[in-house]
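Revision sheet: structure tokens.
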Amino acid sequence: MKIINLQAENFRILKAIEIAPDGNLVTIGGKNEQGKSSVLDAIWVALAGRSKAPPTPIRNGEQKCTIRLDLGDIIVTRTLTAPKEEGKTYTDSVKVESADGSQRYNKPQLMLDDLMGQIGFDPFDFVKRKPEDQAELLLQMVPLPIDLEELARQDAADYSNRTIINREVATLDGQIAGIRVADDLPTELVDREAILGQLSSAADTNTAIERERMRRDGEEAIVQRLDASAVNKRESATERRTEAARLIAEAEQLETGANEDDSAAAARRAQLKDLPPLGEPVDTAKLRDDLAAAEATNAQIAEAARRADLIKQRDAKVAASQSLTDMMDAREEDRRKALSSARMPIEGLGFAINEKGKPVVLFNGLPFGDASSAQQIRASTAIAMAGNPDLRVLRIKDGSLLDEDSLAIIAEMADAEDFQLWVEIVGTGGVGIVIEDGSVKGTVTRVDDEKPKAEPKVPASDKLL
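Predicted:
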């Protein structure tokens, strides 16, 4: 199925055109901003509708545009109508009927979507695309047993989770490295409570010893006071005897008192002498050192236990990270197997996975971009043809970028495969159909000197039938 006749009125910058292509290579030429691109876009919009239409498809100042596409077996008529209210969008209606008008399709756009296949495929556009974009376009034509997008989503989720886990591993490694543990550290905690008990007992013992020392010192002080008192009393007695006889009686009494003091002092001295010696005070400084050492040891044991727990956590995170890596590797292998077994539209095509994990196109085992220009043009055109088995129409919007050899290659392939190829070219020399000011100026026969060989064939009317 190919284009027999194209009519368009008020589409973009087109006024009214009618083109009945002759042959498989249809070249559309003219100066810039005259309507060449609008011709090729009209074909695309007639088939795809609003989804592929430009923001303003209706010619400035007009209320409606119509595109009629005669495909031999069916005729497609699409009408775009400007909105009546400002701020609203245009309406899009399409009619698909049989060539003789006897049958009209109830779901025209659905029928056209099934018919088009890869009608938007521009062979030259495929060559210019980046490798990943080429693969994405080709994968639309090649059924795979796996969902690459789903695998990519799973990879992205696993990669994100693995990144988080690896950050946690790095944090744990930093914490582990910050804990220093002695080589001869005991495995059991030191019984600090026992040492505290010893400290408490030592304090009680030392308090009792100190209390007894103070008591004995008190007794010694009493003895000393008694001794001093006896001396004073004797001195007083001597003084009193020499003073007067009347003091003899008092002296006798004082003597008696002195003797009593002597007896009491002797008794207390004997008691002090008979007391056992005081015991040696307990060395609490050593016990405090032992307690400090025990607490330091216990702190190191606790740090060692925390370090062991961190290592356990780190190992679990590393295992989880490796598990995610294994799953991503498995999906990578699934991708490689599916891509390597894909049924390609032409011989020599294949897929590979690049360093970013994205599929790219190979041709004869090498990256598609490494093939010669002629090979790329042939391959991309063959891909486009394979993608359009029913509607045998392709378009090239940048035909001016093709040299004569490249254009000859695709023209030859179009003839060989009975495909209709619409090519936009800047200029009028050697061009088949010339567009000027939104209308068909005429047709030109391609000759070596690129000059017209016959009078231009202009449609009888610039208006649609």
